[in-house]
Automatic annotation (TrEMBL), chain A:
Natural source organism: Mucilaginibacter ginsenosidivorans
Protein name listed in UniProt: Molybdopterin synthase sulfur carrier subunit
GO molecular function, one term: nucleotide binding
Keyword terms: Nucleotide-binding
Family that this chain belongs to: Belongs to the MoaD family.
């Protein structure tokens, strides 16, 4: 499955753009993370990162659909 | 539950935030103003860049507000967050809370800023004289 992934903060630097297309085997957040880390190993150096599906934090077993708005959320630092 | 939650690339206005939370039922207003500091760990900061995943950031701030209303008898709650490039001394965030009594206002205001820093998808990049760093990105 191919999904479009939005990137913010340092993830934008790692991806080299504000959105990328990722190819994943399966349909869960965990599989998306695996695919992204393979293509962009620098993700693994982050303190942590989350995936948001339709602008809500997702768990590793969350199901992803091709039409979802998906985003990589590196450690936040607002305020 | 009266809230005013915004993300803006324009300078924030302290007085208008205070005016908005004022009410005849309030006995106290607590305001937190975040400001850009000129140094981090002894290194000179020249500016900060703030970026938000706006729809999600607004949603997460609404959630924090709802939690504050559940925990304390809050009358009005305002969160204004700025995005874009800010110089030293500028204001990235204003939180204002009005309550009948001061204890709740102090506690709720502190809860909002502390939780915002943990959950709201907003990022800041510190620019030093010799480079730039996304805050908290690396261990």
């Amino acid at each position: 499955m191919k999904v479009n992934v939005l990137a913010f903060g340092i993830a934008k630097d790692i991806f080299g753009g504000s959105s990328i297309t990722a190819e994943l085997d399966g349909n869960t957040t965990a599989e998306l993370k695996k695919s992204l880390e393979k293509t962009y190993p620098r993700l693994k150096q982050l303190a942590s990162y989350m995936v948001a599906v339709n602008s809500e934090y997702a768990q590793d077993n969350s199901i992803i659909n091709e039409t979802d708005e998906i985003a990589v959320i590196p450690p936040v630092s607002g305020g | 539950m009266e809230t005013q939650i915004t993300i803006s690339d324009k300078p924030l206005n302290i007085q208008s935030c205070i005016d908005w939370v004022m009410s005849p039922q309030s006995g106290g207003i607590d305001v937190f103003i975040g400001t850009v500091r000129d140094a981090t760990k002894g290194k000179k900061v020249v500016r900060l860049d703030f970026e938000a995943y706006e729809p999600m950031a607004l949603k997460e701030m609404e959630k924090i507000a709802a939690q504050a209303f559940e925990k304390w008898p809050v009358q009005k709650l305002l969160i204004h967050h700025r995005v874009g490039t800010l110089d030293v001394g500028e204001i990235p965030v204003i939180i204002a809370v009005s309550c009948a009594h001061r204890d709740a206002a102090f506690e709720a205001c502190r809860f909002v800023i502390d939780t915002l820093k943990q959950t709201v998808p907003i990022w800041k990049k510190e620019a030093f004289e010799d480079g730039e760093v996304w805050v908290a990105a690396h261990p």
